[in-house]
Design a protein that fits this description.
- By secondary structure, the chain is mainly alpha-helical.
- The chain has a domain of about 60 residues.
- It is about 40% helix and about 5% strand.
- Strands 1-2 form a two-stranded antiparallel ribbon.
- Helix 1 crosses helix 2.
- The longest helix has 15 residues.
- The radius of gyration is 20 Å and the shape is extended.
Length: about 100
């Protein structure tokens, strides 16, 4: 029986700016492969990173440790369950989950 390999990954939520045409194509490709836009962006970037030989060489240098983070990372808010009485006291103020993975 083959061993089952389990890869656990940690997800973050980050804001990025895309050209309108690119954003439309991400949505279209996501619909085409029946996936989420988040999955498309993640997989496409991983594919590009793995295929770019110059980038792979860069990753082996000491310069990679000097790269400052540039993504605008958002912290996920957790959902707080409230009773129906508490919800009625604050209409329109329901808790929201920004990112969940």
């Amino acid at each position: 029986m083959p061993l089952l390999e389990i890869n656990q990954s940690r997800h973050i939520c980050a804001s990025v700016r895309l050209d309108e045409v690119t954003a439309t194509q991400v949505d279209q490709y996501a619909a085409f492969i029946h996936a989420s836009a988040d999955d498309v962006v993640d997989k496409v970037l991983n594919y590009v990173f793995s295929k770019d030989r110059d980038f792979q060489d860069f990753l082996k240098t000491a310069h990679v440790k000097q790269v400052a983070p540039a993504l605008r990372v958002r912290k996920a808010r957790t959902i707080v369950r409230r009773s129906s009485r508490q919800r009625s006291l604050r209409p329109g103020r329901s808790p929201r989950l920004l990112c969940a993975h």
